[in-house]
Amino acid sequence: MGARDRPTIVVAMGAEEERLVLPPDVRTRLALCGTVATGLGELHRADVLLTGWGCPPLTDELLERAGRLRLVVHAAGSVKWLLPGSGSGSGSWWDRGVTVTTAADANAEPVADFAYGAVLLALKQALGTAAVYASRGGEAGRPGFLERHGADGAVVGVVGASRVGRRLIARLRTGRLRILLHDPYVSVPEAAQRLGAERVGLDELCARSSVVTLHAPELPETRHMLNAGRLALIQDGGTVINTARGSLVDTDALVQECAAGRLAAFLDVTDPEPLPQGHPLLGLPNVLVTPHIAGAQGSEVRRLGVYAVEEIERWVRGLPLRGRVEKYDLGRLA
User: 182, 215, 245, 303: which one is catalytic?
Assistant: First the structure.
């Protein structure tokens, strides 16, 4: 697009989300890129569609109304739910010449921070120690009780070299930990070594790890990838961390392991989500369930808007996009 062109940029997201994603300074920067309009009612005018949380799925019906559209910028993470059916068929956004990009890289940073914190707490066995401290006081601090706690020499298993998984490995590369990686798309050991991890099969990862942290996409082949058999392989006193998708873990099997006190868990996602009131996982002292808060929250949401506006700036100037998503990527994205 030439420098003199003024594209129409239509913003489609919830009102509260828009306020957080596009605070005044970010919106001012967006306005320098083109004429800004709000709502899918303006889709027929859109050269660029800026979406986010609160935007409905972009169906074929909406596609027919978007005759001018050339760019979809999603100021959030996954686009799989946003573009239903776009992985195949002649009616997809890609087949109409629409470029799709996402701020998933920006959203991955706080998720990796959250997972890193959970790993450190898990290696300190913080949940179990806190429960003992609450019930028996100072006994939790006795040297004998803390004998197995600590990060030095511990083995952490990372499932999925995704945006989050790679960032987490980078944070864990302190030299004190052994990091195992399972990801079918990391096909050679050297690729894992470059990341700072040892490539292993999923069963071996579970058997060798004291902490298993999940960063894989939700696909038919990843459903219940941590089933009863693999959960049983994890070392006694081990911890499962899930900030990816709840369906990756067999919830009933995890309940049994945690209720028996053999495993602990940090769960930011669950299956079902949300868990019903009174679910066993919500009452166990060695399980922390949070309501999908690992991604950008509060002041962090602004970074999604900044990333999205930077993508539009690059597009206007004819530069490569950092978060571009191709149709063939959908089969392995979260």
Answer: 245
Q: Is 292 a catalytic residue?
A: yes
What is the reported pLDDT for 95? 85
Pick the CATH number of 107-289 from 3.30.1130.10, 3.30.720.120, 3.40.50.720, 3.20.20.70: 3.40.50.720
334 with 78: CB under 8 angstroms? yes
Q: Is the pLDDT of residue 2 over 50?
A: no
Nearest Cα to Cα of residue 224 among 241, 246, 252, 248: 248
Query: What are the two backbone dihedrals, phi and then psi, of residue 100, each rounded to the nearest 5 degrees?
Result: -120, 135
Q: Which of 29, 68, 70, 292 is catalytic?
A: 292
Instruction: Confirm or reject CATH 3.40.50.720 for domain 8-102+298-332, answering yes or no.
Output: yes
74 is catalytic: no
273 is catalytic: yes
d(CA 334, CA 273): 16
Go through 182-194 and write b for each residue having 16 or more CB atoms within 10 A of its CB, e for each that does not: bbeebeeeeebee
- Per-residue pLDDT of 144-184, as tens digits, reads 555 667 889 999 999 999 999 999 999 999 879 999 999 99
Out of 273, 279, 313, 324, the active site residue is 273
10 three-class SS: strand
